[in-house]
Structures
1.
Amino acid sequence: MVSNKASKKRKKKEKMSNLCTLSLSPDPFKPFIIFSNRHEIRRIELHKGEFSVLVPGLRNTIALDFHLNQSTLYWTDVVEDKIYRGKLSENGVVIQYGLATPEGLAVDWIAGNIYWVESNLDQIEVAKLDGTMRTTLLAGEVEHPRAIALDPRDGILFWTDWDASLPRIEAASMSGEGRRTIHRETGSGGWPNGLTVDYMERRIVWIDASTHDHSLALIRGSYLTHPFAVTMYGGDVYWTDWRTNTLAKANKWTGHNITVVQRTNTQPFDLQVYHPSRQPQAPNPCAAIDGKGPCSHLCLINFNQTFSCACPHLMKLQADKRTCKGKCNNFLLYARQIEIRGVDIDNPYYNYIISFTVPDIDNVTAVDYDAVEHRIYWSDVRTQTIKRAFINGTGVETVVSADLPNAHGLAVDWVSRNLFWTSYDGFDVIEVARLNGSFRYVVISQGLDKPRAIAVHPVKG
């Protein structure tokens, strides 16, 4: 019979033996860094330091992520206001409409979804990897979201918020449930910037660009002048720094062995380490029926490897919590300067349609809706135009553009298919045209003093 002491000694020896075996086993996958520097996405061999350009000729790329099993990169462009994906020389648009400033991006490599934060529209959205089934996941009490990270094994979504009154890091399930604040910045802290998950230790790591601190306060001062993004690999933490134009790394436990991985001519933004350990596998609760699971449309991972069903824009989840129906639901349409939103009547933080924003909107003053063609019409006093688009974001076009000062009122005649509007600037008028802008005509030009709001009742003429 072996004593407890001898047994513990043997187990410790076996554990050390296993650790040695693991450390000596060669890794068949050669890790490399991918990072963005506005105009390119580059690849750096982790152990050699050699770099190559993966995607050239970009406008202003900020966030990026990858799907290792599909050998696919995903990235955002805040000038083009689009989300792209590509495989080396091949790339294309995934999300094209309703984006303003998508600063954070995260790929769910298990259920096959993509998440992003909109720092201008103050919301978090999700869609399938191909951009379909897009919906608003979280909105309301989101002030300035910046970075986003996922752990699909546990179904957890993390994001940072630069809220001036309460800088913080929040978490929720990847289906948007169970939202909670897990860290509040105190003292002089205020810019929780980059964020990542240490999958080996099941903890989050972030960088604060205000105090220039690593989340564990292991690295600070001159080594962190304006850190933007952070990631992990093995026993090291990696980050980008705007002020020094560098990619650097250090020991994730002690903060020692700080090393510059690469210097860049322009500001480096997001970075990831491309390696299987950065996307650990787990059971997929949405695996059935081509990734829909038991849902009619969009299946999202919830806590503890469970699922939750969601609906794309223009649809609503039914009482069975699995089926989506829509295209005849009521929604509230409203505008505020640089955006137009259509929200669910019963849930004002749920966007029933995608948001319309820059560059199609500069200073919107009036908005109306044509239920026959499912189009939105709006006037913009800064560009002095009236535009329209389908509620799915496509078909944006200008219908009236000449002699249109201060168009503060707009109304659609859905029976006769005409468009009425008010304008004033020394010449106060109410005008009408066909919905496409043709056959423009002044209806009233006398007895007006800076006309603003307008409404029509076509049934009664």
2.
Amino acid sequence: MKRVFALFLVFLIMLQPMLVIATEEEQGTDFDPGSITCEAVLMVEQNSGKVLLEKNSRKRMYPASLTKVLTALLAIEELDLNETITVGREINLKALDASGAGLVVGEKLTVSDLLRALLIPSGNDAAYTVAVQVARKKANNPSMSIQEAVDYFAEMMTERAKELGAEDSNFVNPHGYHDDNHYSTAYDMYLITKEAMKHEIFREIVRTQYYSTKNEENTESGDKKVEHSWVNRNLMLRKKGEYYYENATGVKTGYTSKAGNCLISSAENDKLSVILVTLNFPTEKERWEESIKLLDYGLNNFRFHTVVKEGDIVSSVKVGKKFFKNTVTLDVLAEKGFEDLFNIKDIPEIKANIEWDSNLIDPRQEGQDEIRLLGPINEGQKVGRVVYTLNGNILSESNLIASESVMKLNILDHVLLGGDYVLRHWYIVVIPLAVLAVVLLGTLSVSKARRKKEQGVNLGKRRRY
């Protein structure tokens, strides 16, 4: 007996981790998103566009180097990635305390490598070169001054942002170095990032951990070969780092003393892909730790759920005939399906509310729990609708259609229905008959009086003769 009991305990101990794993899968990550310390946040699932988390997402704030996502987008849209450009004196505009890619005046590099210099080490020098190259090309003015080109490019940035729906942003430089009039929102930066992520070159660059120009693409500045080695500032991409996150796919860091620690991050698993915009973390440590927790929360606490498929059996209902008690059971189908992204905790709370076609309900069933419809009902006929709700909010609705034809009418049914119609609409028959009777009686009375009068006239004539 003791041996059996011991084996049972061993079995329970072995089973416990399995139960824990199953529970974690069902409940998702145990993290309170309300505990985050950043001032603004927006997390969106990319494929569905559904907002998973939001806090102050429309508040105007300073984006710092997150600005470079828009700078890169314009470069991708306006320049040939394979084109070789020459770095000019515009890089001297970079502030001494600003991040740079180490570009040198006169060096030549492709636009794609210029984008890497912009996004991987977050080079403000590269941002200026992008701005000048794009502005001069767009304005068709190669001799445009550097400052004119930078201002022109800033106008392009704001205009392009508004085209994307980013209405609460204004950009005055291509890099995000602080300016009181340079601002955006978490929501606007999401819109800009979403558009940039449509481009393969952007996706490839922002997930690159390390890049070096020490290869065939090296170019020369005068007699001196210019070589660069850039390490991504996004610590989630560094495999041996403290904040490495295996699901991370990009995209951009940002910091100024006024903007605080900012980060646009993206991550994916086999089910979901999310973009997370976080603005103004108090510390760099919190930026990385909390962003990882937020990404985990998004990837593990939400999933796509099919509420109903087109043609699924939603319910069944009794169908009978008016003058008979016998019934048949009819399956009713959803005319259209519905799938959406849900917090896994909400899925059990989804309710289906069925509303039957009032014209089909047997009036004798009113007040009773079981609904009975009156036939005949034809296959594909609409018999009602189903409304899906979550916490009182309507998610979707669909017509309910009959899966087959039932309770077809025979001759006896037609006779009974005809008689019932007459009984229920007696006035339609009686009134015309009454009117007809009155007319006939009136006609007979007039005819009788006319005959009497004619007989009296004929009798008078005989007496004269």
3.
Amino acid sequence: MSVDFSLEQGKLRRSEQYNTWDNGDPAPELREKDVEFLNEQGLHSRVVRVGITIDELCDLKTHSCDFNTIAPWLDDISRATDSMVVHVTPKHLIEEKRPPKELEPLLYLAIRELKKRFPKIDYIEATNEPDWEFHGAQIYAGKSPILSPAEVYPYYVPYYKAVNRVNAELADNQKLRVGGPALTGMTEFWMTAFLDGYAADSNPQKQLDFVSYHGYGEFSDDFSSYRSYKSDPSEIRDQRQRLDRWLVERQLTPGIPVLVTETGIYPGPSFDDPDPSKKDYLRQAAGQASLFYWWGKQAEIYPFHWVVRHATQGRKDQLITHSAAQPEVDTFSPYGNLLLMQSMMKQTRVKARSNSLSQGLGVYAIAAKDTTGVSVMVWNYQHTNAGRFRTQIQLSSLPAELRDQTVRQRLYRIDQTTSNYWHNPDKANLQQVAEKTLALDDSHTETVELEANGLYLMVLEPVSETD
């Protein structure tokens, strides 16, 4: 693979700064330590996504909300991020198929009180996987669906109305943004029905600040089958183009921001190996790197990592939670180490090209530079295949800051035996595997061995006089 540092591609999308915390809170006793650890490791988030079922917390009869059960959780998470997205769901009202307009008073109360109590909440996401919870899951349970595709947008309307009312009471720099509908995937059948509703809404105060969905794969229209992205992450490469086409077809403005508020290669309880410690933890890391690679090449798409600690599915954990001594303190999974690698990338993305990538599988590369040096991430996503690559990393047009002086090169690795809790718990966190000093001109070549789903980070920085 090759990198040309003279070909800039804009500011690098800081993937590691968009994260999520599970509502299940599997290790509440460690949450304060988790926040401190992530912040110390340079993984303070720009935006974190959480979720709340509001009809269990707010009461219209008393015009009040009791946040005692969630306040310690959200207070801790607030210290790990600059901003929060909250998916708010009046679950029971929707299950009862109450008229959408009846949701607005409860939504207004809940959103107003949430913003007042937790000021870092800046985004309100309407519902969470309504296509699954109120339709697909009902079919799988042998019941009649609660919502059809055309009925999702009417339940969105009270959200923007409630947010508009709350925003009228807030200062300009505190106003909330609202969007949705947080579908299970970017499924045309459901997303276009939602956009049809928005386009037909004649209310001049209607608001859709972002579109949201989840990024594991897509159900068929009748929920009889599911296509996961894990066998070919490149399937998501045209999501911006598809969405913009649907918007233009409805005479709506293209380019609306997209929040992919859950991501991964393992939706729900799915797996490749029943024992995740064998290979699934590493597959999750390489698979997420690959999905974020394709989203990162598209404008105004912001995927969120899922998740710091998962209540039941360890292969999704960034911090080791489901071990024999569960949960571990200050201990990354291979997936958590991926976020740490991403945080060590430089600021300006440059052109990187791989000649060993086909249909989403093979060698990926991302490179960046700034005044402190250069960085290159390479990985070999194979999913369940076993392909290995001996990869030459060829760097050209290196920045002037690295030429004609001593440069320190550091290599970091994640694979089945390195930076992997399941091989060696004492060396679970990201491991530096090589270091050397070099005298460079405008080019440099390094060779690495990439096993299936292995990841490397190379960092080149000038040696300072104090080193």
